[in-house]
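ok posting inputs for the manganese (II) ion job
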Amino acid sequence: MSTLPDTVLSELELQAIELPSWAFGNSGTRFKVFGTPGTPRDPFEKIADAAQVNTYTALAPTVALHIPWDKVEDYDVLRKHAEDLGVALGTINSNTFQDDDYKFGALTHEDAAVRRKAIDHHFECIDIMHATGSRDLKIWLAEGSNYPGQADLRGRQDRLNESLRTIYERLGDDQRLVLEYKFFEPAFYHTDVPDWGTSYAQVSTLGDKAMVCLDTGHHAPGTNIEFIVMQLLRLGKLGSFDFNSRFYADDDLIVGAADPFQLFRILFEVARGGGLNNPDVAFMLDQCHNVEDKIPGQIRSVLNVQEMTARALLVDAEALRAAQVSGDVLAANAVFMDAFYTDVRPALAEWRESRGLPADPMAAFAASGYLQQIAADRVGGVQAGWGA
Ligand code: PSV
Ligand code: MN
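and the output
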């Protein structure tokens, strides 16, 4: 395929994928964190690196922050810094998973004082959102238990609802809350928000400004994630994606790396359900680059999303529908697979060039010397890590 249809290009032109600030810091496993020369030492340097991704792809105009990892004295200054680099500050992620008080829960804790502390943290996040101009507050809760009988499952669900309501009521008119689910980790027996159904049950009681966040790595192996995408879009409650890929657990690898076909299927359902370039559905990455360079890792990630979106948009909807209606199983599957197997890379390269972007953003970034420059410049200080 040498060119893509205008209908596809007009959708691709609007695509925006938010980058996680923490992807630019050092990260690793519980065994070892390998440092990289030039790793950012503060949120300003993380945003400078994120802006590089947008410069070479025009796909990543916003950067998500994690609080307290990205706390700064003055958020107006950080906001201005981002704008000067051609990007904006995006989703604010709360963090109730790294404080001793939260050992047995935060928003679900038995002790009202601990719940109050966790709620106050979210109030602080909302204050930051006002300063950064962010719309979304993303909440992921590391809450659960390890042993049967350890916790009162029902009571925790009730306290969670009460805490979320208190946070929700604090949101501004244009702000939203997105509640992320994850089936296990750090708790191994039960998790308080383990699945989309629980997130949906919780946010549905709050109101229109509360939505579900779907992190692609947060499902049991074999889960049909595109079915969940379809259902949440159908219910009007798919607020955002945390894109990444996984082989085993919550691996946080480059989106589309482990299973490009799954990413294609997800993006097909997004497009089918009206979720593409729909402001209600935020596309974000939630990844860590443990052994590869971080900026090229993010460039590769946004390109993977772009590529699979293009392929998903190539599905011949009429032919697919006709085959489905007539019960022609193999023809329907062939229409679907034809689009998946279409190599759109040459056409995308040509299209990028026509828009004044590099045909090959990975090569252009590598040739820019930016990585060598930051390795030379960022000497001294403490490199930021996942969690700092
Ligand atoms: C939890 O595993 C999670 O997916 C949440 O989105 C956190 O904010 C993020 O990872 C931290 O890396
Ligand atoms: Mn996530």
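notes: The pocket of manganese (II) ion (ligand 2) is lined by residues 140, 180, 215, 242, 286 (CB under 6 Å). The two ends are 45 Å apart (CA to CA).
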